[in-house]
Fold this protein.
Amino acid sequence: PRAAPPAAAADAGEVAVRIHFGMSGSLHFDGATPRFGGAAGTPALALTFDGNRTLQAIGATAGLERSAAAARAKHAKGLRRDVCASVSDFSAGACAAAVRALPPETL
């Protein structure tokens, strides 16, 4: 394990974790099997919360970001480019309808 990068002063005790999933990666909440299969194996990240609730990232790599504030800003920038971010239905059909509704100059 490598040492954690220094946190920015503005983060005030916050930590941002980046998880990158491979093609068969999956999140497991409280040990539940993912709906769409998912990899079995050793978790890249395993967290235990109050009430003994668990989250495991399997088939992934995990690391700490330099700054929680910078990670939030990067996420917000990405949401502006995500055509499905404004809909609450993330099915393929809803995302396709969101793309069709975009003005042609944005495609």
User: Anything to note?
Assistant: The two ends are 42 Å apart (CA to CA). The mean pLDDT is 76. The chain has two helices and three strands.
